[in-house]
Structures are given as structure tokens and as C-alpha cells.
Write the C-alpha cells for this entry.
Amino acid sequence: MKKSYKSITENQFKLFDNMLEGVSVYKLIFNDKGKAIDGILEYVNRVTVETMNINPEEDIGKKASEIVKSDVNKAYLNVINEFIGTGEYKRLEIYYPPTNKHFLISGFNMPNNYFAILRVDITEQKEAEEKLKESHANLELKVQERTVELDMLIEELKSSNEELQKFAYIASHDLQEPLRTISNFTQLIERRYKGKFDSDADEFIEYIIDATKRMQQLIRDLLMYSKVTSQQEDFKLVDTEKIVKQLISDLQVTFKENNVKITRNSLPNVCADERQLIQLFQNLISNAIKYRKPKEPPKIHISAKKEDNECVFSVSDNGIGIESEYFDRIFRIFQRLNTKEECEGSGIGLSIVKKIIDRHSGRIWVESEPGNGSTFYFTIPLKTCPKN
Ligand code: ADP
């Protein structure tokens, strides 16, 4: 494929002939300012013939601008001129429309104003890159679509959750009023008519009064449960030692009635909703009393220790204990292990405790053995707190 390029030796041509890259050699044409403005094609190797669709018989001897009529020429000339000016040849990626190919071009200067251009066919690599880009773009689009969907779902969930909270609050709040009327009037009937009907009637009235009381308790607890989210206070630095001390003093009458022995270690300050923390201790303490062993006075111990970046509190008792299979279930709403005949309750106390702990980004769990008491653990993350 050599024609008139005499200054290159036969061996050099052989080298070009067998190269896997396309090679073409041009004799550069300069303007009077010394700038290359075109080049006459002097040599092409086999790979160039195949990939550029060049016919050596026709094209050798022609100007580059006659053979390749596209912007590619301009780009070539820019790079060649830059090379001549700076001695640095920049690699150039081009797309060659006639053969629908992508090339990575480099070149080097040869004696007597000849310039060799090396052309690596990167079409496959480019196509793979394009496909990858396309699938990336598709993936990104899908991720965006899913994110929008998820955001919408979260919004829906939030608002339905808010609705539910409102519903629970309003329902339990508004139910209290008619129930109070039922309670008052059944108590009135009892007082006024007890012994005036037959013994069955007295018994029925007792049932109504009893059921009404339980319903009042259930509604009170439900209201309390919904208030964990509907009536929150901001977090502030809470002296748990102080609030537990106060709680113990407030519960003195209950403790005396039930012969309770309560002890505690020194307790730290934590960042929390004070009212909710009081509520939490109160629920755990009252359970410790409620689920005591029949013939043993309740013993309760409260302690806390700092671990890593949280504070682990514990409330332990010497009560009836819990089977390990129920360790998770007891924290769910309305889940009770004891019948109302054994122990009064609504199954809401621990779910309130759990909800409070969730709001504080803590954890709660129980360790227990039937007959050997229970220890309820909960954590409060240690963090800097807004000033009180
Ligand atoms: P309630 O006491 O109204 O039933 P809770 O949610 O406070 O509801 O408790 C759920 C269940 O967990 C109780 O019914 C009881 O079986 C069990 N439980 C809670 N605390 C204790 C405890 N200290 N010792 C033994 N069992 C307990």
C-alpha cells in the first residue's frame, strides 16, 4: 500500500503493514504562517483501508480534505498544529460517520513534513460504554420513580397514621363522657334499689358496675396511649434520680398497702421528655406490684449504668416472672398473659412504655424466669440536650 513515500524504509512499511492499529501517513501542506492546512495522503496500512473505507489506488496522492469531507479533518489539523507548536500530541477521540466507527487517534512527526496518524478502533468499547450509560440512566430513572412512589407512600402513611392517632384520641376522649353517665346512674340504681328487686338483680347491677369500671380503665389507658404521640413535650435534660424519688414519694400509700420494698442506685441525667419518662417508670413499677407472687411482699430495684453512647436503666422485681416465649408479645398493645380474674389490666401499659422508648430512639427488653421475678431494661441514647 506504499506509493510515493520514499523516505521511509521498506522495513518501516512492513512494521506499519502488520500493525493492529490503523496507520496513515500524510505529507503536510502549510500556509505562509507555517500552519498545517491540509495533508496529502502518502500511505495507508491494511487496517486503515478496512476501517476507514479507503481505496489506496484512488486515494493515495489526494488531499485529506478531498478524501474525508467532514469536521474530522478540522479536528485532526487542530491537533496536528498543536503538536507542531508544542511538541505534545494529544490523544483524540473521534467518530467517523462514513464507517460508523469510533477511533482513538494519536500521531507522530516524521522527517520532511510527513506526519503519521495512528488510529485505534474503539467502536466496541464505545458501544459498550454507551449501553452502560443508557442502562445507568434507565436505572437512575427507575430509582427516581421508585423514590417518588416511596415518598408518596410515606406521606400517605404519615397522614393515615395521624388520622388514626386523632381518631384514637377523639374516640377515647369522647367515650369517657357517656360512660361516666352510665357509671353514675348504675351506681345510683345500686344505692337506691339494692335489695328491692330479687338477688339476681343485685348481682346483675354488680356486673354492670364492674364492667363499667373496666371500660373506664381501658379508655383511660387508650387515651394515655394516644397521648404519647399527640401530647408530646420537647426533650430536655431530666434528672432521673429526682423524678424517681418524687414518684416513690407519690406512691407511698400504694407501697404501704402492698408492703412494697423499693430500692434504687443513683440515677443519671438524660435527654428526654420528662412527663413521658415519669409515665414509663410508673407503668413498670405498678406492673412490678401487680404481678407479684401471692405470698411474698414485692421487692423492686431501680438502677442505671452508662454504656458506650447510651444509658441502660433497669427495673427488677421478685414477682411471678414471664415465660421467655412471651418476651416480645407483652410489649404489643392488648397483649396480656393473665386473665382479668387473676389480675386486672388492659394490656396497654407496656405498649405505652414501648412507644415512649421508640420516641426516644431507645430499646426495651425483658429478662425473666417464671417464678423468679423479671427485669425490664430500657435504653436512652446519651446526647447533648437543648438547654432547659
Ligand atoms: P396489663 O398489665 O394491663 O395486662 P401490660 O401491657 O402492662 O398490660 O402488660 C402486659 C402483660 O405482661 C401483662 O398482662 C403481664 O402478663 C405481663 N407483665 C407485665 N409486667 C410484668 C411483670 N413485672 N411481671 C410479670 N409479668 C408482667
Summary: The longest strand covers residues 101-110.
